[in-house]
Design goal:
The structure holds two protein chains of two kinds. Chain A contains 17 helices and 20 strands. Chain A is an alpha/beta fold. In chain A, the strands form four sheets. Chain A has a six-stranded mixed sheet with strand order 6-7-8-3-9-10, with helices on both faces. In chain A, strand 11 and strand 12 form a beta hairpin. By secondary structure, chain B is mainly α. In chain B, helix 3 runs antiparallel to helix 11 and helix 13 runs antiparallel to helix 14. Chain B starts with 9 loop residues before the first helix and ends with a helix. Classes of the chains: A alpha/beta, B mainly alpha.
C-alpha cells in the first residue's frame, strides 16, 4: 500500500544501546488474562520506548484489544506487572490510566452526539461545578493543541455534524486534554479515506516529535510499515514477535500473525462476462427530510463479474445495498433483476428480491445479517425461514434446519461447527462465513455484498475472497461495497466510486490505482466539481 | 457450546436464582411481620397451609393460577416480539365482555359443546380486538404501546361500567350484573367433574378453564419456537433490522403478536365469566392483568416458567387471603405488601443476587478443581 508520510526521517530504526537509556514509556511484564476457559493473554511482555510509534498487530481474537483494555483499566489482569515510565502502577479503572498519562482512542468513538466538540472534550474533566470556568479553560487548551499538533476542529461544532475523520481528532484531543503522554489507538484507520488516514499519520508524527508515545492496534500491515517504529505481533494470546519496522516486511508480519504462509491473491479473473444480471437506472432515494441519499445513479452488473463500489462510508453505499435488496423502497428510478422490473410503482420486498435469486450479505452482520440472540441454526435460515425445505404445513422442521446448518458450517469451515451455539457468541469471522455460506448456498444470480471482510481476520479474509471469486466464476453477478480499497482492488473487475449519493467515477481494474481512487472518493479528482463536502478532505500536501 | 465456566449453568440461572429471590422477599416480609409483633414463621405456615394444605385451599390456588397463566402468557408472547403489553387488564375485561355477550345470545339455543368453543372464540376475539387498536397505533402511527395499552385499560373500565349500568343490567335489580347464563353456558367446576368420577372435593371456583390454560401454554411454546411465524416474531423482537432483511414485516408482526397477546388475556374473561360467575359483572379482572407482568418476568417469558410463576402467585393470593383472615393484625394491605416484595425481588431486582451467586459458584468450581487435583496427585 503506497502509504506515504512526510516524516520519513522521523522513522529511524531503533537506536543502539545509547548510554543512559530513558525508562520505557510502558513496560508490561508477564500479563495473563483469562475469560473463563479462554486465555486471552498468556504471559505477555512488551516494552514500548518513549516517544515512538509502536504497532500491535494480530488476528481477531489474538488478544491485542484485551491487552490494551488491561492497560487502560477496563479489565484487571489475572497476573503480571505494568510499569509506566519505569514506575510500577496499579491500573484498576480508566481513571487510573488517565492519571498515569494514558489516553485511548477507541475503534467506535465514545462521543456524545448532540454535544459540541468542546463539551465532549471537557466532559468528565470539568474543573468545578460551574461550567463557565471549564469552558474557558478548555477553549484555550483546544486552541493550543490545535496549533501545536495540527488537530484542527471547530470547538463549537456539534458532533453529529462532523465527518469521521474529525471525530477521531476529537477523540485524540480528549486524550491530550487529559494530559495523556501515551496514546493508544484501536484500529484508527478503519473508517478513514486514504487521505484522512494520511492526515492522521501526520498528526501522529507531530505527537511523536513532541514526545508523545503512540501505540496503534491495527490489522493493516501497510500502515504498520508506513508509520510505526516498532511492531509487536500477537497470536492466540501470546506475544510471538517484536520487530523494528525497518527490518521487517508485510509478508513476514502476515506470516507471524497467522502462523503459516498465505496464498497469494485469489484465482485469476474470468475472461468472459455474460449478460447484465442487475441493471440500475436513474435510481434515487430521498430520506424523509428530502435529502438525496442516492442521487440519480445507473449501472449494470453482468453475470460473471464483480463490480466494486468504493467510497468513504456514508456516501450512499449502504443505502444503495438496502434499496437493491428491497429493504428500503426507492423514491425514483428502476432496477431490473433477472428480467423483472422493480420500481416505485412495482416495489419488491426483501423476500421477493430473494425470490428473484438475488442474495444479500449485509454490511452490518450484527445488526442485519443475523440475530445475535438466535442460535446458529436459526441464523442459518434467516431470510429463508419460509422455505418449504424447512417447514411442514404448520411446524418448522428443525432437524432439517440443523442438517442444513451443519452442512454450511462444514463446507465453509465455520468454527465451532455447533448449530446450537448462540450466533452472537461466534467470532466476527465465523459469523461472516455463516452468512456468506447461507447466501451463496442458493447459487444466486446476483449477490450484493457489503464490507465482506470488515473485522474479519486474515485467514478468514483469504477464504471469503476465494469464495467470492469462485462464485463469480460460476457466473454470478456480484456487487461489492467495501471501504477497504485493497479489497476492492483485489477482487473487482470494475470499480465505481460513490460520493454523496452519486457515482463520481468508474475505473476498470487495469487502470485503477489507490491514489486516483482516493481522490475520487473525496471527489477531489480532476473534473470533480469544486471542493468535497467532507472536511476530512483538507488540502492534501 | 463453548460455555465458559464464568457463566452459570442453566439450572442455577433459571432454577436456583428465582428461589433465592423468593427467599429474600420472604425474609424481608418476615422482618416486617416481626416488626408488627407477629411470628413470621407462624405466618408463613398459615400461608402455606392456607394455599396448599387442604382441598379448598388448593382449589382456590389453582383457580388464581389459571388467570395468571393467561395473563402471564399474554405478556410473554408480546415480550418476544419486543412489545411491553401492560394492557392485559383491559383486554381481560373486554375479553370477558365478549364471552358474556356470546353466551347471553346463544345459551338458550346452543348446546354446551358448541357454547364452549364459542366462549373461547368470543373471549379471544374481543381481547384481540382490544389489543389490536394500540398495536395498530404503534405499528402505523408510532404511538408507544406502553402508553396506549395502559390508557386502554381505563377505557375498558369506563366502557364496562357504562354497559353494565345502562345496557346489560338485568332489569329490576340494583347491582350492575346481567342475568345468569343457562346451564349450557356454564363451564363445569372441577368439583363437579371430580364428583362425576366419584371423587368428592370441597366446591371451589376452579373449573375446566385450567385445562385450556395448560393447552395455551403448549400452543404458545409451539408457536414461538416451532413455527416460521414464531421465528419471525422473535426476529422482530430481537432485531428488527435483521427481521426486515429476512423479509418479515414488522408492522404485521406487531399487530399479530398483540392480537395473540390480547386473546390470551381475554381468556381471563373465559375463566371468570363462563367458569365462575356465570353472568357478566364488573371488576372481575381484579388486577390479574398487571400481575401477569410479574408472572411473565419471573417465568423468563417461557411457558413453563409462566406456569411455575403462576402457581407461586396463586399460592401468594390464596395463602395471603387466608393469612389476613386468620391473623387480625396482619391486614390485607400487609398481604399485598408481601406480594409486592415478591414481585420486587423476582422482577425488578431479579439480577441482584446473580453476582454473588456467580462468585460462590466460581469458588465452588475452583475448590472442586483443587480437590480433584489433590486426589489425582
Amino acid at each position: 500500500m503506497p502509504m506515504r508520510h512526510d516524516g520519513d526521517d522521523a522513522v529511524v530504526p531503533p537506536e543502539g544501546p545509547s548510554p543512559p537509556a530513558p525508562p520505557a514509556a510502558i513496560e508490561l511484564r508477564g500479563i495473563n488474562k483469562s475469560f473463563g476457559a479462554v486465555r486471552a493473554n498468556r504471559d505477555v511482555s512488551m516494552t514500548v520506548r518513549a516517544g515512538t510509534i509502536h504497532g500491535i498487530v494480530g488476528e481477531n481474537g489474538a488478544g491485542k484489544s484485551t491487552l490494551m483494555s488491561i492497560l487502560y483499566g477496563f479489565y484487571g489482569a489475572d497476573s503480571g506487572e505494568i510499569r509506566v515510565a519505569g514506575k510500577p502502577v496499579h491500573i484498576a479503572s480508566s481513571h487510573d490510566a488517565i492519571a498515569a498519562g494514558i489516553g485511548m482512542v477507541h475503534q467506535h468513538f465514545m462521543l456524545v452526539d448532540n454535544f459540541t466538540v468542546l463539551e465532549n472534550v471537557m466532559m468528565g474533566a470539568e474543573s468545578g461545578p460551574l461550567l463557565r470556568e471549564s469552558i474557558e479553560k478548555a477553549h484555550g487548551e483546544l486552541t493550543r493543541l490545535a496549533t501545536e499538533y495540527g488537530l484542527h476542529v471547530d470547538p463549537g461544532a456539534v458532533i453529529s455534524d462532523l465527518p469521521v475523520g474529525a471525530l477521531q481528532r476529537v477523540e485524540i484531543l480528549k486524550a491530550l486534554y487529559r494530559d495523556a503522554r501515551i496514546l493508544i489507538l484501536d484500529e484508527p484507520t478503519g473508517v478513514l479515506t486514504p487521505q484522512e488516514a494520511e492526515q492522521l499519520f501526520r498528526i501522529l508524527s507531530a505527537l511523536k516529535e513532541r514526545g508523545v508515545t503512540v501505540i496503534m492496534i491495527t490489522h493493516k500491515l501497510g500502515e504498520v510499515m508506513a508509520i510505526t517504529d516498532t511492531v509487536s505481533v500477537m497470536r492466540r494470546g501470546r506475544m510471538v514477535a517484536e520487530r523494528a519496522t525497518a527490518e521487517t516486511s508485510t509478508e513476514e508480519l502476515a506470516e507471524l500473525m497467522v502462523g503459516r504462509k498465505l496464498k497469494a491473491g485469489v484465482s485469476p479473473r474470468a475472461e468472459t462476462v455474460g449478460a447484465p444480471a442487475l441493471a440500475v437506472e436513474r435510481l434515487c432515494l430521498r430520506d424523509r427530510y428530502g435529502v438525496a441519499r442516492i442521487d440519480d445513479i445507473g449501472f449494470e452488473v453482468r453475470a460473471g463479474e464483480i463490480v466494486g463500489i468504493a467510497g468513504v462510508s456514508g456516501n450512499g453505499q449502504s443505502e444503495l445495498l438496502e434499496v437493491l435488496s428491497g429493504i428500503t423502497p426507492m423514491t425514483a428510478g428502476r432496477i431490473v433483476v433477472e428480467g423483472r422490473e422493480v420500481s416505485v410503482a412495482k416495489p419488491a420486498r426483501p423476500d421477493e428480491m430473494r425470490g428473484l435469486r438475488l442474495a444479500h450479505v449485509p454490511e452490518d452482520r450484527q445488526r442485519r445479517g443475523l440475530v445475535t440472540a438466535f442460535t446458529a441454526r436459526e441464523s442459518s435460515i434467516l431470510g429463508y425461514q419460509r422455505d418449504p425445505a424447512y417447514n411442514g404445513r404448520l411446524f418448522t422442521d428443525y432437524d432439517a434446519v440443523d442438517g442444513h446448518c451443519r452442512d454450511l458450517m462444514e463446507r465453509f469451515d465455520v468454527r465451532p461447527p455447533l448449530p446450537g451455539i448462540i450466533s452472537g457468541k461466534m467470532s466476527g469471522g465465523n459469523q461472516q462465513k455463516l452468512i456468506l455460506a447461507r447466501e451463496i448456498d442458493r447459487d444466486p444470480k446476483v449477490l450484493l455484498v457489503g464490507q465482506p471482510t470488515r473485522g474479519v481476520d486474515i485467514g478468514a479474509i483469504e477464504f471469503i475472497h476465494q469464495q467470492l471469486a469462485d462464485l463469480r466464476d460460476r457466473g454470478c453477478a456480484i456487487l461489492m461495497v467495501s471501504v477497504e480499497l485493497d479489497e476492492i482492488m483485489a477482487l473487482s473487475d470494475r470499480i465505481l466510486v460513490m460520493f454523496e449519493g452519486r457515482i463520481v467515477g468508474e475505473v476498470a481494474i487495469k487502470d485503477a490505482d489507490t491514489s486516483t481512487l482516493g481522490l475520487m472518493m473525496a471527489n477531489a479528482h480532476e473534473g470533480a466539481s469544486a471542493r468535497g463536502g467532507t472536511s476530512g478532505a483538507e488540502p492534501v500536501a | 457450546m463453548s460455555a465458559a465456566p464464568a457463566e452459570l449453568p442453566r439450572w442455577i440461572d433459571i432454577g436456583l436464582i428465582p428461589v433465592i429471590n423468593i427467599c429474600l422477599a420472604l425474609l424481608v416480609s418476615g422482618l416486617i411481620i416481626l416488626a408488627i409483633g407477629e411470628n413470621p414463621v407462624e405466618a408463613m405456615a398459615i400461608m402455606i397451609r392456607g394455599a396448599l394444605g387442604y382441598g379448598e385451599g388448593i382449589g382456590y390456588t389453582l383457580y388464581y393460577t389459571t388467570n395468571f397463566i393467561f395473563t402471564g402468557l399474554a405478556v410473554a408472547i408480546a415480550f418476544h416480539a419486543g412489545l411491553f403489553n401492560i394492557g392485559g387488564e383491559g383486554q381481560a375485561y373486554i375479553g370477558g365482555l365478549g364471552v358474556g355477550l356470546a353466551i347471553l345470545a346463544f345459551d338458550s339455543t346452543l348446546p354446551f359443546f358448541l357454547l364452549l368453543p364459542l366462549g373461547i372464540l368470543a373471549g379471544a376475539a374481543f381481547g384481540a380486538a382490544w389489543a389490536a387498536i394500540p398495536a395498530w397505533l404503534q405499528a402505523y402511527r408510532g404511538s408507544h404501546i406502553v402508553i396506549t395499552t395502559i390508557m386502554f385499560n381505563f377505557i375498558a373500565y369506563a366502557v364496562m361500567v357504562y354497559l353494565m349500568v345502562n345496557v346489560l343490567i338485568k332489569p329490576g335489580q340494583m347491582s350492575p350484573e346481567s342475568r345468569e347464563f343457562a346451564a349450557a353456558g356454564q363451564l363445569p367446576f372441577m368439583h363437579e367433574m371430580l364428583a362425576g368420577i366419584g371423587i368428592t372435593v370441597t366446591p371451589t371456583p376452579l373449573n375446566l378453564s385450567i385445562v385450556w390454560a395448560l393447552l395455551c401454554c403448549v400452543g404458545v411454546w409451539a408457536y414461538i419456537w416451532r413455527t416460521r411465524w414464531g421465528y419471525e416474531l422473535r426476529a422482530v423482537g430481537h432485531n428488527e433490522a435483521a427481521a426486515v432483511y429476512a423479509g418479515a414485516r414488522p408492522r404485521h408482526i406487531v399487530v399479530a403478536a398483540m392480537c395473540i397477546s390480547g386473546a390470551l388475556a381475554g381468556f381471563v374473561g373465559f375463566n371468570e365469566i363462563m367458569g365462575v360467575h356465570h353472568r357478566l359483572l364488573l371488576n372481575f379482572p381484579a388486577g390479574y392483568g398487571f400481575t401477569g407482568i410479574a408472572v411473565s418476568l419471573m417465568g423468563r417469558n417461557h411457558p413453563v416458567g409462566v406456569v411455575l410463576a403462576s402457581l407461586l402467585f396463586g399460592v401468594l393470593y390464596q395463602g395471603g387471603a387466608e393469612l389476613a383472615f386468620e391473623v387480625p393484625t396482619i391486614t390485607r394491605e400487609l398481604v399485598v405488601t408481601i406480594q409486592g416484595l415478591v414481585i420486587l425481588f423476582s422482577g425488578a431486582l431479579a439480577y441482584m443476587s446473580t453476582p454473588w451467586v456467580t462468585r460462590v459458584w466460581r469458588a465452588l468450581l475452583a475448590w472442586r478443581a483443587g480437590a480433584a487435583a489433590a486426589e489425582g496427585a
